[in-house]
From TrEMBL:
It comes from Lactiplantibacillus paraplantarum. Keywords: TPR repeat. The keyword Transmembrane helix does not apply. The keyword ATP-binding does not apply. InterPro entries: TPR-like_helical_dom_sf, TPR_rpt. Coiled coil: none annotated. This is Tetratricopeptide repeat protein. It holds the Pfam family TPR_16. TPR repeats lie at residues 135-168.
Length: 224
């Protein structure tokens, strides 16, 4: 996945110098290039990350799995920089068997970020069918279905994700959210979500308030 924890400035500079040393010592080893692109991306130094990935791709373009790994890294630079149209072609070029599903997942996330939910769903389901036992793949399908307003289907995939990872506050929260919309019991799911992932729960509380208002308005309309 593209998300990486952001190192502090001192740590990042030390690691950058270390990886530059590795590249100088072994210029034919693509791993150090890849790791440096990932590090620069995590530090949100997108211009340098892009330039290095492009340079490395020029060097290793005809070598596999190096070329696909570097394409994936460059796609992730663009994804993190929120330039999704630039990211997509790099993910689409990946043919490496080990990376293909990761690339499909990033394509789905990029398309979702562009609000192109129908195409995002195609790629997300492709990944979910290849990795039915991966909670993240089920969560992504569920998130896209929720965005499309398919609450019952979304709920089914959130339930699958929770069955695979019972520590997922995100899955528990969204089971509660879809249950609320579908008129099913939901309170225990929100309690569980709050215990499992307080940060996620707080970040999405506004979503709850909005849905409560929407449901109240619908109830008022039915009574009038």
């Amino acid at each position: 996945m593209a998300k990486a924890s952001r190192p502090d400035k001192a740590e990042q500079q030390a690691l950058v110098h270390q990886l530059i040393g590795e590249i100088d010592a072994q210029p034919e080893d693509y791993h150090a290039y890849y790791e440096l692109v990932v590090l620069l991306t995590a530090g949100q130094d997108f211009e340098q990350a892009e330039a290095l990935a492009m340079k490395a791709l020029g060097k290793f373009d005809q070598q596999q799995p190096a070329a696909d790994l570097l394409r994936y890294a460059l796609g992730n630079v663009y994804y993190q920089a929120q330039t999704y149209d630039k990211a997509l072609p790099y993910y689409q070029q990946i043919t490496d068997h080990k990376l293909k599903n990761d690339a499909y997942m990033m394509m789905a996330q990029s398309l979702m970020a562009k609000h192109d939910y129908q195409h995002a769903l195609v790629w997300a389901i492709t990944v979910q069918e290849a990795r039915p036992d991966q909670a993240d793949a089920n969560l992504l399908v569920a998130d896209i279905l929720l965005a499309l307003g398919n609450n019952q289907q979304a709920s089914d995939y959130y339930q699958r994700a929770y069955a695979l990872d019972s520590h997922s506050g995100r899955a528990a929260f969204n089971i509660g959210l879809t249950a609320m919309v579908l008129g099913q019991p939901y309170a225990t799911w929100f309690e569980r979500a709050k215990k499992l992932d307080r940060t996620y729960f707080k970040a999405h509380q506004q979503q709850l308030t909005d849905i409560e208002k929407m449901l109240a308005a619908q109830a008022d309309n039915q009574h009038n």
